[in-house]
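Let's practice the habit of predicting before peeking. Look at the sequence and jot down your guess about where helices and strands might fall. Then scroll down.
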Amino acid sequence: MVFRSFAAAALGAAAVFGAPACAQMGAGPPQTSEPGVAERFVAETGRGWQEAIVSVRDLAPVRDFMVDIAGYEVMETGTLDPAWLAAWDLPQGAGGAYALLRSPGKSVGWVRLVRFDGVEQDLIRPGAQAWDQGGLFSLMVRSEEAAEMADAAHARGWSVFNQPQIFQFGPLSIKNVVVRLPDGVNLAVYSRVSPPVEGWDDLEGFSYPFNAMAMVHDIEAERAFFEGGLGFSPFWEGDYIDTEEVDTNFAMPNNLSVEIARRTAILQQREGEDGRIELMQFVGLSGEDFSNRAVPPNLGILGVRIPVDDLAAVLERLAAQGVSPAAGPQTRTLAPYGEITWTAVRSPSGILIELYEQP
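Done guessing? Here is the structure:
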């Protein structure tokens, strides 16, 4: 299947370890509480990823952008629990802090910002082009006006991958821009020009992240991991090539937009836009491989956390594919989920996936 407009087809087809210091599960400002007394949250399984784990040098810039521009709520803040740091084999003396954020009232698509202290760090994707493999490229959100999000980023001295683009997908007219936040964190912002988007109530600023995109060099191997191992299925799959030379949302040279197919699989665990994983391979372009860098304490979008009903069964399916845990399984306590059985695995391209089961 070949679509002759990449961006239009792609869209139209449509902590890490913490000891909490405060909790806020409803609207309004965060309320201080003693560690361990926050209301326990039971995540819904079969809905894709619950939260994205984002490693930054300083919590404030990204946190303040999400709070000030999009009205995100700070649900939890705290220090990084030494037990979790040890689980990742980080050196003794490592520390840090985290802030768990969400779009107001949303029970999915959370963002856990993590700052590591006392350890050496590298960028997961240093100087990377869009087609380079390694880690997660972006978190996708919707907005009333994507161009305003580019302006908000520029006002903070940040940049974008592309000027906001308007493109057609059937009867839909859509605008997109990929905003570069600090520390290699990309936010892909989409807004509807016409007709008005329906079913979204958090578009002022930008919505909760509903999709996480990864650039890969072997899309079939990645699909086997997510579909056979983690129970995802394709929402959309195909190759995208533009019919005329255009400025793409991945900073690819314009003349290559009509030559290079962007092979894509948008995967989900159930119908709906929550917790999706989008895999993309630039067919005909080779690039760097940063797969081994997508691990704590490195900087960028580290990975996503997925709740499961039966962790042992998931690990058995992954073992049949030759995938072994990178950490765990272990019993740990993680706010706001309480006691969990947790493990971490890595996809063939190095995407870090944390799996957890709640009793």
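How did you do? The longest strand covers residues 172-181.
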